[in-house]
Each structure stands twice: as structure tokens, then as C-alpha cells.
Amino acid sequence: MEVTKAQIAKGLAKFIQEDMLPHVDDKGMQFILGVASGAIDANPQALDKLLDNPLFAMAAKSGNNYDLSVLKRSASATIEKYGKLEITVPGIKFLSPADKVFQFSKEDIERLVSRIEGS
Question: Rounded to whole angstroms, how far apart are CA atoms 12 and 6?
Fold first, then answer.
């Protein structure tokens, strides 16, 4: 399935709001993620650095769209082989000074893809 940058942004924002935020106890980190989610939803160009990365674009870009099935298949296979994907969200000194590490499983990737497909 091919999707647009705007669909990816809306789906990612929804994933952050509905699948990540409920599991974060730190109110400051909730604020950071909430603001990031809103910014991504309102401004899909915020994802340009990731989506236009040459390796990422080579693997998944199809014209002006992105092949979601390639992304899902590649991410799932990588997680199966190497374990959970870890992403560190840096803290902001006056809100939540500690970095927060999020671990994503194959099921998380499937939920994210579902959010993107529904956007």
C-alpha cells in the first residue's frame, strides 16, 4: 500500500497519542511527546529528515509516496532478527531532564502501520 507523507504524519501522531502516551508516567515526557505529536500532525514536513534520508527513500519511496508494505516488512524482519527497536527521546531540562528510551516490538510496528493505513 502506498501512502503519502501526510498519511504517515497523521498515523504517527495518532500512534504517539493512543499507543505511547498512555504508557508514560513522567508528566514532562508526556508533554514533550504530546507537543511532538501535534507538531508532526500539523506539519508533515517535520518528517522530511527521516523520510528523505537516501537509504530510507531508496527502500520505500515510490514517486511522491511511500510503500508502507516495504516499511512494515523490513521493520518486522529487523526486529525479529535483532530484537526490539529502541528509540531515545531526549529530555528537556526544565520539563523532564532524563532521556526516555522506548522499545518497540513487531506488534508495535503493526499497530503503527494500522494507524497510518487508517489516516
Answer: 10
What integer pLDDT is reported at residue 91 of this predicted model?
A: 86
d(CA 113, CA 73): 10
In this structure, what C-alpha cell is assigned to residue 82?
535483532
Domain ranges in the chain?
Answer: 2-117
In DSSP terms, which residues pair with 88 in a beta bridge? 101
> Tens digit of pLDDT for each residue in 36-91?
999 999 999 888 888 888 877 777 888 888 888 888 888 899 999 999 989 998 98
Residue 64, number of CB atoms within 10 A of its CB: 8
Residue 119 cell numbers, joined: 489516516
The β-bridge partners of 87 are: 102
Give the residue carrying C-alpha cell 517535520: 46
Mean residue pLDDT across the chain = 90
